[in-house]
């Protein structure tokens, strides 16, 4: 049996590291236990192919809370976020290019639709207002809806006042964002099919829904909530890959006194009389602690790490009803050069490749991709969010070479027709991704030096994300706020005393955000202060 700690954190993903940093800063003796050889969970950088460093899973940053960056002084610990420049959507008969250069964006939009160019700024202002309204909820611990604890509800008072003060048309727009499909919402402003498809595609990231499915408008809003250096809605990549985010947070935690161990898989949470008292490692070592924080998702925490019978059957049933439905895959490419998109003039340079490249030219294209997934097939023509990371951070590959990150919808965790995610299925999925890119950039096949393909099953096995869901549970309306992950237990505490969730299964959900870890740490510290009194 090891020495006792004030808190043990299960999982060295970025949320677990954030929680450890805040608890350590408050004077607790904290131990982080990571199963893999590398820290970060899904926010990792790994040299899978000699000389080429992949952001293996998570690949861009925008949602990381500014207060975490500030309070933990992450730039001092090495964090530098490099902005991406807009988005580029290749089409069969042209392209859609939106960039930080407003005049150039307007010029490109007018080629498709003068009306859309006129509506673009109006839509952007509306989304900015919606983000300003809803963003504070990311820093609020949800109240218990059936409870009468006044202090829990006071946190929502300002949000209620802000909603009251919104213009009537913005109150209506907020209700629409919470209930409509991304396509239907966006179509109220725009008429050009490629623009509607590009804007709506934000609503299907990591979600087993199509752009015509109600609920995807909120997922779109969720992705609008980010910023880079104060620029609203901007996205960037950390210098050194997404692992640099995790390493910076880990450095902040260590400097505050936290102890971090890799290759230390937890097999069980120890409990006594309904209270968590520590963990058991796969090695058999027992580690005692006053508090246990789990950065694993709700299903793994409650149904795999606790002894059977610890929880009442009704609670376990609620946990089983929490939806994961992994629908995403990832393909990382080491390239010998840059892809040439035939829709773009050769003399146009590479500026259009320095942002997000969306393979999703039309609404019907995206919906057909979803149709395949509904029936248990990976998309034969998938939506791909492609970033050539080395155009922003050349350090990720040797000189003249490149790393491309391809996030893919859809790849359902549960395949149909008796098929399984075996090597042949993985290769076929990877081929479909390359073929979809080659439709617009035929030279891509000749450039590939190495290809890493991650199916939802690979994501589950490698990173411990149930069913390969990148958000530790879908971001659908019935699984948000006080219902995440289980109604009545959205305040990070669990039915097992002194056991807390601190990962993305808890409010406010997924992405490289850090908010669940920060809020969970605050709740643990509040519990400690109450007991001290």
Characterise this structure.
It is a single chain. This protein is an alpha/beta fold. It contains 18 helices and 20 strands. The chain has helices spanning 14-25, 66-71, 102-112, 114-134, 150-154, 157-165, 168-179, 182-187, 193-200, 216-224, 243-255, 298-304, 313-321, 363-374, 423-438, 444-447, 456-463, 515-532, and strands spanning 2-10, 30-33, 45-49, 52-55, 81-83, 87-91, 94-98, 227-228, 231-232, 236-238, 259-261, 266-272, 275-281, 286-294, 328-335, 356-359, 383-388, 402-409, 448-454, 499-501. The radius of gyration is 23 Å and the shape is globular. The mean pLDDT is 93.
SSE layout and pairing:
Layout: E1 2-10, H1 14-25, E2 30-33, E3 45-49, E4 52-55, H2 66-71, E5 81-83, E6 87-91, E7 94-98, H3 102-112, H4 114-134, H5 150-154, H6 157-165, H7 168-179, H8 182-187, H9 193-200, H10 216-224, E8 227-228, E9 231-232, E10 236-238, H11 243-255, E11 259-261, E12 266-272, E13 275-281, E14 286-294, H12 298-304, H13 313-321, E15 328-335, E16 356-359, H14 363-374, E17 383-388, E18 402-409, H15 423-438, H16 444-447, E19 448-454, H17 456-463, E20 499-501, H18 515-532
Parallel strand pairs: 1-2, 1-14, 2-11, 6-16, 14-20
Antiparallel strand pairs: 3-4, 5-10, 6-7, 8-9, 12-13, 13-14, 15-18, 15-19, 16-17, 17-18
Helix pairs in contact: 1-11, 1-18, 3-4, 7-10
Derived structural class: alpha/beta
| Number of helices, where a helix is a run of at least 4 consecutive DSSP H or I residues | 18
- Gross morphology is globular
Write down how many β-strands occur, each being a DSSP E stretch of 2 or more residues: 20
Q: Main β-sheet: number of strands, strand sense, barrel status?
A: 7 strands, mixed
Helix share of residues? 25-40%
- CA-atom Rg in angstroms: 23 Å
How much beta, percentage-wise?
15-25%
First-to-last CA distance: 30 Å
Mean pLDDT equals 93
Low-confidence stretches: none
């Amino acid at each position: 049996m090891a020495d006792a700690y004030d808190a043990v954190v299960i999982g060295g993903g970025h949320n677990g590291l954030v929680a450890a940093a805040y608890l350590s800063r408050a004077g607790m003796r904290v131990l982080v236990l990571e199963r893999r050889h590398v820290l970060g969970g899904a926010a990792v950088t790994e040299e899978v192919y000699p000389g080429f460093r992949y952001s293996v899973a998570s690949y861009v940053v925008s949602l990381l809370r500014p207060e975490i960056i500030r309070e933990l002084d992450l730039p001092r610990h090495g964090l530098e976020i490099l902005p991406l420049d807009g988005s580029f959507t290749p089409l069969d008969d042209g392209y859609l290019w939106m960039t930080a250069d407003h005049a150039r964006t307007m010029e490109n939009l007018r080629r498709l639709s003068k009306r859309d160019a006129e509506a673009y700024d109006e839509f952007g202002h509306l989304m900015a207002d919606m983000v300003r309204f809803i963003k504070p909820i990311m820093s609020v611990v949800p109240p218990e809806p059936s409870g009468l604890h006044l202090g829990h509800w006071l946190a929502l008072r300002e949000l209620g006042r802000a909603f009251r003060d919104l213009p009537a048309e913005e109150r209506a727009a907020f209700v629409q964002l919470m209930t409509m499909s991304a396509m239907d919402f966006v179509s109220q402003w725009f008429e050009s099919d490629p623009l509607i498809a590009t804007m709506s595609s934000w609503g299907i990231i990591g979600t087993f829904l199509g752009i015509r499915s109600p609920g995807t408008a909120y997922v779109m809003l969720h992705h609008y909530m980010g910023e880079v250096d104060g620029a609203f809605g901007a996205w960037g990549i950390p210098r050194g890959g997404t692992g640099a985010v995790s390493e910076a947070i880990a450095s902040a935690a260590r400097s505050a006194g936290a102890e971090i161990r890799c290759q230390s898989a937890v097999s069980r949470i120890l409990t006594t009389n309904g209270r968590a008292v520590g963990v058991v490692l796969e090695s058999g070592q027992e580690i005692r602690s006053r508090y246990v924080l789990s950065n694993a998702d709700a299903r793994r925490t409650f149904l795999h790490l606790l002894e059977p019978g610890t929880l009442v059957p009704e609670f376990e049933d609620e946990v089983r009803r929490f939806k994961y439905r992994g629908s995403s895959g990832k393909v990382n490419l080491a390239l010998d050069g840059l892809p040439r998109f035939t829709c773009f003039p050769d003399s146009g340079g590479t500026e259009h490749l320095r942002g997000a490249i969306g393979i999703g030219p039309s609404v019907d294209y995206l919906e057909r991709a979803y149709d395949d997934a509904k029936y248990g097939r990976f998309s034969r023509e998938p939506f791909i969010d492609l970033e050539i990371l080395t155009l922003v951070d050349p350090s990720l590959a040797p000189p003249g070479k490149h790393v491309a990150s391809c996030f893919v919808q859809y790849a359902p965790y549960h395949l149909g027709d008796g098929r399984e995610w075996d090597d042949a299925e993985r290769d076929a999925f990877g081929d479909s991704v390359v073929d979809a890119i080659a439709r617009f950039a035929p030279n891509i096949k000749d450039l590939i030096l190495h290809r890493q393909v991650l199916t939802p099953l690979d994501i589950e096995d490698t990173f411990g994300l149930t069913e390969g869901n990148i958000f530790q549970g879908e971001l659908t309306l019935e699984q948000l706020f006080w219902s995440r992950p289980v109604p009545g237990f959205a305040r990070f505490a669990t039915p097992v005393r002194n056991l807390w969730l601190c990962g993305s299964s808890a409010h406010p959900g997924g992405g490289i955000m850090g908010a669940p870890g920060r809020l969970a740490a605050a709740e643990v510290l509040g519990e400690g202060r109450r007991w001290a009194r």
